[in-house]
Specification:
Layout: E1 4-14, E2 19-29, E3 33-37, H1 44-52, E4 59-64, E5 70-73, H2 85-90, H3 100-108, H4 122-134, E6 140-144, H5 152-163, E7 168-172, H6 176-182, E8 185-190, E9 193-197, H7 204-235, H8 241-260, E10 281-292, E11 295-306, E12 310-313, H9 321-329, E13 336-341, E14 347-350, H10 363-368, E15 374-377, E16 380-383, H11 384-390, H12 407-420, E17 425-429, H13 437-449, E18 453-457, H14 461-467, E19 470-476, E20 479-484, H15 487-513, H16 529-556, H17 561-564, H18 566-602
Parallel strand pairs: 3-7, 3-8, 5-6, 6-7, 12-18, 12-19, 14-17, 17-18
Antiparallel strand pairs: 1-2, 1-4, 8-9, 10-11, 10-13, 15-16, 19-20
Helix pairs in contact: 7-8, 15-18, 16-18
Amino acid sequence: MAPPLIQLKDIRLTFGGTPLLTGVELSVSAEERVCLIGRNGSGKSTLLKIAAGLVEPDAGSRFVQPGATIRYLPQEPDFGDHATTLAYVEAGLGPGDDHYQARYLLAQLGLSGDESPAHLSGGEARRAALARVLAPSPDILLLDEPTNHLDLPTIEWLESELQNRRSALVLISHDRRFLANLSRATAWLDRGQIRQIDRGFGAFEAWRDEVLAEEEREQHKLDRKIVNEEHWLRYGVSGRRKRNVKRLANLHALRTQRRNYRGTAGSANLAAAEAEKSGRLVIEAKNISKAFSERKIVEDFSMRIQRSDRVGVVGPNGAGKTTLVNLLTGAEMPDSGSVRLGVNLEMATLDQHRESLDPKSTLSEALTGGRGDHVIVGGKPKHVVSYMKDFLFSQEQIRTPLEVLSGGERGRLMLARALAKPSNLLVLDEPTNDLDLETLDVLEEMLGDYEGTVILISHDRDFLDRVVTSVIVPEGDGRWIEYAGGYSDMLAQRGADLKREAMKTAAVEEKKEAKPAAPSAAPKRRLSFNEKHALETLPKTIEKLQAEIAKQQKLLDDPNLYTKDRKKFDEASAAVAKAQQELSAAEDRWLELEVLREEIEQA
C-alpha cells in the first residue's frame, strides 16, 4: 500500500459540551479520492480544516508527507485585500508554479481576472476560489462543497477537470451525482468517529444502512441482557456473595455502556402546510417574451402547468431561470404574451438569497417574526421549540443568532419558513444548497407526498431526476424548451434531437454537393426489405429493452441487495449495462432509418 500523503491520528475536538471529534483516524494516499460524508453539524468542515492545518485539535496528530502540497477550498472564501480575481488566484501559486494556469483557469470558469472580489456574486466567488486551488496542481485537494452556487455546465466542467487530474482528493458535497462520479473511497463521519470503506459513494448508502441495522440489533441485545441481569438480581437464587458482587458490577458496566451510547441523529420532519386544492389548470403561458435592453431573456415561450406537476428549471447562471419563474408565477409581467393563473392558488416561495435574513436576529425571531413563541403552521399555532425540532434544531438553539448558523442550518431555516405557509404551489429556488444527504432524502419524500404543484430551480442532477416530471432548458437567444422526465431524460432527448438534426443537415449537404442526375438517372432510392423490417420492428425491440432495464433496475433499487446477494447484484448490473448498450444501438439505427425514410419521401 502506498504511504499516506496526509494522515490524521486520534483527532479529538470539543466545542462546548458534546465532543465533536472523538479519536478520528483518516489517511489519504497519492491519487486517492475520498468523499467525506456526514450529517450537518457532524464536524466534516472542521475535520477538513484540521487536515489543512487551519484548526488545531485538542489532541491527536497530523502528518503530511514532506514536500507534499495541499490546497484547501473553504465554503466561504476570504478574498482579503486583493484588488482583482487574478491577483487573488496568483497569490495561491507556489514559487515554481506556472502563472499562465491562473489566467487559463479563470477563463475556463468564465472570469476575466479583472473582477473586483467585493462585487462578485456567490457563483463567481466560488469559481474564483476554485481557480485558486486548482492552478498550482497540488498533491492533495481538500474541497468543501465545491459545487455550491455553481450552475450545471460549470459543475460538469469541474467534474471532468478533477477526473483528469492526478491530485489526491478529499471531497465534501451534497451532490450525489458529483460524489458518485469522482469518489473511490468513502469516509463516514458519524457521532465523532470515522468509518471508512474502499468503495465510492455509489456503495455508501446501502453499506450505511446495514451498519446502522447491525448497530440497532446490538443495542437490542444489550437491552435484553440488562433486563435479564436485573431479573436475576431481584429473583435469582442467592449464590456466594463474591459472585453476586461481581454480577452486580457487570450490570453497572452494562448500564454505563447503554447510557453512553450516542444514537444516530433523527431525521428532519419536513411537511408542507397544504392549502385546499387548486384548479386543474395551475399556469398557462402563451407566447410570453421578456428582454432587458437588447438582451432576450424569454422569447415566445408557451406552456401549461397542471395540478401535481413537478417542473424543473435548469440552465447556466445568468440564463434567466429566476426571471422565467417570476413570469410564470405572475411576480413579473412579460413584455408581450399572456400568463393565466388558475383558480384558488396559494403559493409558497423559497428564495435562494438568504441575505434577506437579519444575521443579528435569533432563530426564534426568524421563525415567529419576532411575535411571541408560536409559529403559525398551516393556519394553526405551534410552539416554536416543537417546530424547530422538526427541522433538527435543538431547544438550546432558540436564542442562537443567525450569523453563527452553518450553511446547512440556514438552509433548513429557510425551508421551515417557506413550508409553514399553507400552499398548493411550491416555488423552490435552489432548495438543496448546503443540505446534508439525509435531509435531501426527507425533502424528496415530502415533495413526493405533496399534493400540490412544484416549480423547482436546481443544479442538482440527481435531485432533479428523483423529483421532477419535466425539465425546462434554455436553448439560447431567449428560447426555452420543455422536456418530459428528469434531467437524464432531458439529456437523452436533446441528444436524440441533435443527432436527428445533424443527420438531416448532413443529408442535405450531401445532396447539394452531389452532381445533377442525368435524364437517364438511376431509379429513385427505396428502402430495402431489411430496412423496412427494421424500421417496423425496432420500436418493439426498444420497448423490450426499456422494460428489461426497468426490471433489472428495480432489483438494484433494493439498498440491501449488494450485502444480501452479491452474485445477484453483479448479474443485475451486467444485465442493465448490456441492455443499455443494445438500447443505444437500436435507437441509433432507428434514427438513421427514420431520417433515410423522410429523405426518400421528400425527394
